[in-house]
Design goal:
alpha/beta; two-stranded antiparallel ribbon; CoA-bd; CoA-binding domain protein; NAD(P)-bd_dom_sf
Length: about 140
């Protein structure tokens, strides 16, 4: 798992946070801010916030609304929402390199993404893994 998480975080430049919350107390908000501070280009994905400015740019309703694609899709949704997210990821062109499910989120549906060549990380926090692997060192340009 460590090699896959490290590779995902080293190779990603642009991250979509699916289930982003405008509430600073929510993990999706805090992790998105952390990733942005670490140098990633982070895009908030939440239909209820679409068009509003979050993380310095307009939030989008769905992944397909992101022009130019993303390298990593970071999911902050319940496990039962994952199959639809996997289908959305598989419809993207270009496809992301990594589908990442946050802590306590797992789904057998991720096998479809893995079968399509997308790296899958489940039940891990991007911010925790970043700090564990790199400390304060930035890995993004």
């Amino acid at each position: 798992m460590t090699d896959q998480t490290k590779t995902a975080l080293e190779q990603a430049r642009r991250i979509a946070v699916v289930g982003y919350s405008a509430n600073p107390a929510r993990p999706s908000h805090r992790v998105a801010q952390f990733l942005q501070a670490a140098g990633y280009d982070v895009i908030a994905v939440n239909p209820g916030l679409a068009g509003q400015i979050h993380l310095g740019k307009p939030a989008v309703a769905q992944l397909s609304d992101i022009a130019g694609g993303v390298d990593l899709v970071d999911v902050f949704r319940a496990s039962d929402a994952v199959p639809a997210i996997v289908d959305e990821v598989l419809d993207l062109d270009p496809r992301p390199q990594t589908l990442w499910l946050q802590l306590d989120i797992t789904s057998p549906a991720t096998q479809k993404a893995a079968d399509a060549g997308i790296a899958v990380v489940e039940d891990r926090c991007t911010a925790i893994e970043y700090q564990r692997l790199f400390g304060a060192q930035r890995v993004t340009p």
